[in-house]
Amino acid sequence: KNIIPIEVGVGEKLGTQVRSTMKKVGSAKYGIVICKNSLTLLEDANVVKVPLDYFLLI
Fold first, then answer.
1. 20-43 as b/e, with b when 16 or more CB fall inside 10 Å?
2. Are the C-beta atoms of residues 5 and 18 closer than 8 Å to each other?
3. Which of 22, 28, 29, 53 is deepest in the core (most CB within 10 A)?
4. What CA–CA distances, in Å, run from 38 to 1, 7, 11?
5. Which residues, 6 or more positions from 3, have their beta carbon under 8 angstroms from its beta carbon?
6. Are 42 and 49 in contact, with CB atoms under 8 Å apart?
7. CA-CA-CA-CA dihedral for 38, 53, 23, 20, to nearest 10
């Protein structure tokens, strides 16, 4: 089973919580951070930062 950790917060986030959760779970290949940052891909950690406005459009 593939678990995708999600971090949600107001303001700018660095994604540290998602990274630590990915290490704890072990099977997590990707992570999502929903925050006020711009749409960004952190390739070194396989984490996508999604602006809250974009997420609310889903």
1. ebbeeeeebeebbbbbebeeeeee
2. yes
3. 22
4. 30, 15, 11
5. 25, 27, 28
6. yes
7. 80
Over residues 14-35, the pLDDT tens digits come to 899 999 999 999 899 999 999 9
User: Residue for token digits 């749409």?
Assistant: 39
Q: What per-residue confidence (pLDDT) applies to 19?
A: 93
Q: Is 3 strand, coil or helix?
A: coil
- Give the start-to-end residue ranges of the domains of the chain: 6-57
The per-residue DSSP string of 12-45 comes to ----HHHHHHHHHHSS---EEEEESSPSEEETTT
Amino acid present at 48: V
